[in-house]
Design goal:
Length: about 280
């Protein structure tokens, strides 16, 4: 038994004892609990302020510890985690944000409307730029769909609320056309039958799965929180993410835990060489 489990058991034991007390005794215990919690919250608040001034990285590292995070969450000193779909949408917006800021613009998430619609707002110069529709369709929409394949509609909440995919000749921060190429990523022998092979090519983290003569390829990122998948366990054609237990069918990319499939890549096999179609 770990020390943490011992602490939890001790707390449960005392709570069980107090539950049998009369109301006056319970009030004393609750008052003492609140006073101690208030003292701890004040101490933690001061500690966080000090860490923020000295080292934000140290603070982030501390909050990564699940026990520290749980205690801070209990005292309302950190925000509860966003639902996985919103985390992935926010990650997509963070990806396009530098391009927008280079044009003195930005973007914010307005709403996620289940099951497949996202509303965003372009702000700054991007909100009034004649190329804002191009910015949305060529950059924002594509990034969101890369992170969230289940999203089919991205709407800009502004005077221009629909996406125009026509070629207007205007310039967007994302206007360079995305080209693709077939890139050699492995040999067939490198991918064990019913096993996975992880590699990184041209900035793309990939996992490849082989089942006899068939090979499939996916982005090496769990669709839940983008944790690397290559550290997960593979059994009966199913990979389990080592971070949070999400499971995926490796021959199809289907997620067995939620409706968030893996991002696939097209594969070609030429002789003993495996090629994947990548954007560049």
């Amino acid at each position: 038994m770990t020390k943490l489990e011992e602490f939890v058991q001790e707390i449960n034991r005392f709570e069980a004892i107090i539950s049998e007390w009369d109301e006056n005794q319970k009030c004393v215990a609750v008052g003492l609990k609140r006073a101690i919690e208030a003292l701890h919250k004040e101490a933690l608040t001061r500690l966080i302020k000090s860490l923020k001034q000295e080292s934000m990285s140290a603070l982030r590292h501390a909050v990564d510890d699940e026990v520290v995070y749980a205690v801070l969450l209990y005292h309302d000193l950190v925000k509860p985690p966003l639902p996985p779909i919103l985390q992935r949408i926010q990650a997509a917006l963070e990806e396009v944000r530098p391009g927008l800021k280079s044009h003195n613009g930005d973007i914010e998430l307005v709403a996620f409307k289940p099951p497949d619609t996202v509303e965003v707002r372009l702000i700054g110069t991007c909100s009034s730029c004649p190329a804002s529709n191009l910015t949305l369709s060529q950059g924002v929409e594509q990034a969101i769909k890369n992170y969230c394949p289940e999203i089919t509609t991205v709407v800009a909440i502004s005077d221009r609320s629909t996406i125009d995919h026509s070629n207007t000749g205007l310039t967007s921060p994302f206007s360079p056309k995305v080209t693709t190429a077939w890139v050699r990523v492995a040999t067939v022998d490198q991918i064990l039958d019913l096993g996975i092979f992880a590699t990184k090519v041209a900035g793309h983290g990939l996992i490849l799965y082989r089942q006899g003569d068939r090979i499939t390829c996916y982005r090496n990122a769990c669709s839940h929180l983008a944790s690397p998948l290559d550290t997960g366990k593979v059994e009966n054609g199913i990979i389990t993410c080592s971070a949070h237990g999400f499971q995926y069918q490796l021959d199809t990319g289907e997620c067995l835990t939620a409706d968030v499939p893996l991002q696939p890549y097209s594969v070609q096999i030429k002789g003993d060489k495996v090629f994947v179609q990548l954007s560049r």
